[in-house]
Design a protein that fits this description.
This protein has 859 residues and is α+β, with helices and mostly antiparallel strands. The chain contains 27 helices and 37 strands. It binds one RNA strand of 87 nucleotides through helix 7, strand 9, helix 10, strand 13 and helix 11.
RNA sequence: GCGGUCGUGGCGGAAUCGGUAGACGCGUAGCGUUGAGGUCGCUAUGGAAGAAAUUCUGUGGAAGUUCAAGUCUUCUCGACCGCACCA
């Protein structure tokens, strides 16, 4: 009789999930064990900004990490899986401005709320190591790091043009400007000249670039983005003599085209342009107009090439020809030398400019294809170029550089797009920069004994600007050098500074340790074996952290120069969007499908435009609240769902039906466990299991196929294909369901199978599995037990359904021993009517036989 | 414009070395269970033709290599992402 499971009491996830959540927390079940002599594994998800609410994107990110952490524990690794808070930053200040509260209170309150949300999801963190970057202890250490960097020359103060975010009222690093706008505020970024603190990330540019090649555990996409951001170009700088005495230095990656140069162009910000503007009305007007121009990236990019003739001429280093010098709007001051020699025949921008101002165009590279039009930027043979004639581009480059060096006007040079990292922020809620400005002594670092420089609590947000600057007493200090009146630095550090080393502090075994970074602990745990986060940090956090490892290592704090061994970038969680015809967003519950299959607003019957799947966001009204899901379906169902169906690196389409399916599966598992228990499935029976020889053939097959399931699940976990992990487990469970009626009489085999299903499912849905584990009488926690193993010998079937093709088309299958030879298979194949009719009496030309795989008959 | 990733059912997606395309899930349909609905269990489900066995067709499109192509090669179309006046 087939088992009837329909009457089993529903799974009480509320009770069971809270039971195990409390148990894990109380017993400190996931404390990272430093003393283990075995292998270690450090799995880390990018820590969270305490915005006040965990969203589904976080749930997915942290679930992926938790699955890996629990899996690795089961595989016998000593696992470090810590959690913390990226707690400084502007939203806290903005919230304070809005509500009248204090950023610190707002932040710690949010941490409290979000911590409870994380706990309710059953993540296996080592909570003892938890900290927030706004903890005084943490930022005190950070100030120590800042001073160490200062001492080593990795921190410098310089005046330069910086990115100013007019909405957030602070400076942004280059990496934080996306398409001309602030990465957080979205406001158009302005250029301002300010005196700022910079981290000399460019000191490590060669290593930062070279090491990318070795980061084979990173997605290729991220590696490419970092390479592009660093932007190395090799070329030659060339000094041109002007007729007014000054020299103009240009940088070129195409010195081979030097004979094609017909004019020079300098940036409106170039010192010579500024000098000329003092006496030359035309140039002054041009520069003024340029400054007034839009800074919007889109407009900037499509902007017409404009310029003004300076009247200055330079001499060509080889031909002695006189070339005019233009001020041009397309020449950037912050790249290269802010000046170029223009070769209109072989550069698009120069070409456009030359056409507009009627400048000569001289072709010096001949392409092999007659049809190529100017400008031609490809490879070819040099012409009209004296000693370079006949060489190809690469050869000519070398020859030109050599000659320019020989005659003393050229210098081999490498330029990078990467610039130093500006870390000063004119905001309150950040780590104070431990520096003092003294009229007499200049800039003086705070002495180490005076650290930490604490953030004052009594600040007012009633006016715009930095509250630290307005504070009555805080900034007034005595100079550590001369003892005279001095002023504290009131800027705080970019929050990306905070997140550039937090993963190192997590390694410190004693969270109360006053040693900033315990070298031995770090040596044991670093590198991070698996780092998980969004791709949006490809050139921000991930580049800064790499730089920090190198700089900290130079300062003697650590021995590790690359922090992250393997990087996984998960996709976004998306959901359907609905809008009114006027563009207003609608909540899904405001919308329904009408009888004709179209969407309408429930209240008014208005037509609804169904939008694309978009990243969940409040403004688009397509967010799903994890708390609501956990309340209705439980944490296990949610965890299962966010890793089901879609590969974790791809965007995940939310669907309520899909979630229900996972909830059904949890219940299906529960019914299976209850039924199994009634059949006598238990821990002891695993001990007495002695194989399936002589058992019911169905049971033998089930058992052997289960080994394949174990292998598939394990392999898929290793390759992070969590959607496949879920699919293979479900497949295994389905096979068990088909043989339920044989469970009672084969309790030993089923005990082993059920045990291993629990183990494999536990990383994904830990609560129900922990309950089942103890229900069947197994010892300790699931993850403290070894991961299921499989027997290679069972992976291959003894018999296979071998496909028979005629001319490459499938015409039938024969069931044979997996080692069956060609003759046997051929004979059986010829018995098949479908094969006979396909051959249609024609003579056989060829037989292709791959043992255990296929037989293809060619006629 | 440059660079990258990717195109497979109604949908999310599987497919190891080139060897039975569509695992698993969602949706849909049917049968059983149930007083009914739901739940639950089973079955079916790429498309077309057929009562059925079966046949034809099928991985964005075109060509090629091969006994055999979702997989390899070339071209082409489309989608998404990143960078973008970088000299």
């Amino acid at each position: 009789m087939v088992a009837d499971l329909s009457e089993t009491a529903p799974y009480n996830f509320v009770e069971i999930e809270s039971k195990w959540r409390d148990f894990w927390l109380k017993n400190d079940s996931f404390h990272a064990d430093f003393n283990s002599s075995g292998k270690k594994y450090y799995v880390l998800e990018m820590f969270m900004y305490p915005s006040g609410k965990v969203h589904i994107g976080h749930v997915r990110n942290y679930t992926i990490g938790d699955i890996i952490a629990r899996f690795k524990r089961s595989c016998g690794f000593s696992v470090l899986h810590p959690v913390g808070w990226d707690a400084f930053g502007l939203p806290a200040e903005n919230a304070a401005l809005k509500s009248g509260g204090h950023p610190r209170d707002w932040t710690y309150k949010n941490i409290e709320i979000m911590k409870n949300q994380l706990l309710s999801l059953g993540f296996s963190y080592d909570w003892k190591r938890e900290f927030a970057t706004c903890d005084e202890k943490y930022y005190g250490f950070q100030q120590k790091i800042f001073l160490a960097f200062y001492k080593k020359g990795f921190v410098v103060r310089k005046e330069s043009e910086v990115n100013w975010d007019p909405v957030d009222n602070c400076v942004l690093a280059n990496e934080q400007v996306i398409g001309g706008c602030g990465w957080r505020s979205g406001a158009l970024v302005e250029k301002r000249v300010l005196s700022q603190w910079f981290l000399k990330i460019t000191s490590f540019v060669d290593e930062l670039l070279a090491e990318i090649d070795n980061l084979t555990g990173w997605p290729e996409k991220v590696r490419t983005m970092q390479r592009n951001w660093i932007g190395k170009s090799c070329g030659c700088s060339i000094r041109f003599k002007t007729n007014i005495g000054d020299e103009i230095v240009v940088f070129s990656t195409r010195p081979d085209t030097i004979f094609g140069a017909t004019f020079l162009a300098i940036s409106p910000g170039h010192p010579l342009a500024i000098k000329l503007a003092q006496t030359n009305e035309k140039i002054r007007t041009f520069i003024d107009d340029f400054k007034k121009g839009s800074v919007a990236q889109e407009i900037f990019d499509k902007q017409e090439k404009l310029g003004a003739d300076t009247g200055v001429v330079v001499e060509h280093p080889f031909s002695g020809e006189k070339l005019p010098v233009y001020v041009a709007n397309f020449v950037l001051m912050n790249y290269g030398t802010g000046a170029i020699f223009a070769t209109p025949a072989h550069d698009e921008r120069d070409h456009e400019f030359a056409l507009k101002y009627n400048l000569p165009i001289k072709k010096v590279v001949a392409s092999s294809d007659e049809n190529d039009e100017l400008p031609y930027v490809g490879d070819g043979v040099l012409i009209n170029s004296e000693f370079l004639n006949g060489l190809n581009v690469a050869e000519a480059k070398e020859a030109a550089i050599q000659k320019l060096c020989d005659i003393g006007v050229g210098k081999r040079e490498v330029f990078f797009k990467l610039l130093d990292w500006g870390v000063s922020r004119q905001r309150y809620w950040g780590c104070p920069i431990p520096m003092i400005h003294c009229e007499k002594c200049g800039i003086v670092p705070v002495e180490e004994k005076d650290l930490p420089v604490s953030l004052p609590y009594d600040v007012s947000f009633s006016e715009a600007g930095n509250p630290l600057d307005r504070h009555a007493t805080w900034k007034h200090v005595k100079c550590p050098c001369c003892g005279g009146d001095a002023r504290r630095e009131t800027d705080t550090l970019d929050t990306f500074f905070d997140s550039s080393w937090y993963f190192l502090r997590f390694c410190v075994n004693d969270p109360n340790s006053d040693n900033l970074l315990e070298k031995d602990d770090i040596k044991y745990w670093m590198r991070v074996d698996q780092y998980i986060g969004g791709v949006e940090h490809a050139v921000l956090h991930l580049l800064y952290s790499r730089f920090f490892s190198k700089a900290l290592s130079e300062c003697g704090f650590v021995d590790v120069r690359e922090p992250f061994e393997n990087l996984f970038t998960q996709g976004m969680v998306c959901n359907a969007t609905y809008r009114r015809e006027n563009g207003d967003w609608l909540f899904p519950e405001e919308v329904r499908k009408n009888s004709s299959g179209e969407y309408e607003v429930i209240k008014t019957g208005e037509k609804v435009i169904v939008g694309h799947l978009e990243k969940m966001s409040k403004s688009k009204k397509n967010v799903v609240d994890p708390d609501v899901i956990i309340k209705n379906y439980g944490a296990d169902a949610l965890r299962l769902f966010v890793v089901s169906d879609t590969p974790p690196d791809k965007d995940f389409p939310w669907s309520d039906e899909g979630l229900e399916g996972c909830w059904r599966f949890i219940n299906r598992m529960w019914r299976l466990f209850i039924y199994a228990k009634s059949c006598g499935i238990c821990a002891e029976k695993c001990g007495t299991f002695s194989g399936v020889d002589g058992a019911d053939p169905d049971i033998q097959k089930l058992y052997k196929n289960f080994h394949r399931t174990v292998k598939n699940v394990t392999d898929s976990l290793e390759e992070r294909s969590l959607n496949k992990v879920v699919a293979y487990i479900r497949d295994g469970v389905n096979s068990v369901y088909l043989l339920l009626e044989k469970m009672e009489t084969n309790a030993e085999v089923f005990s082993v199978i059920i045990r291993d299903i629990i183990k494999m499912l536990a990383p994904i849905t830990p609560h129900i599995c922990e309950e089942a584990w103890s229900m069947f009488g197994f010892e300790k926690l699931v993850c403290a037990n070894p991961w299921p193993s499989y027997n290679e010998a069972y992976l291959e079937d003894f018999t296979v359904d071998l496909p028979i093709q005629v001319n490459g088309k499938l015409r039938g299958t024969v069931t044979v021993d997996k080692d069956a030879g060609e003759d046997v298979v051929f004979e059986m194949a010829m018995q098949l009517p479908s094969v006979q009719s396909a051959i249609a009496g024609k003579p056989l030309k060829r037989k292709i036989f791959v043992k255990g795989k296929i037989l293809n008959l060619v006629v």
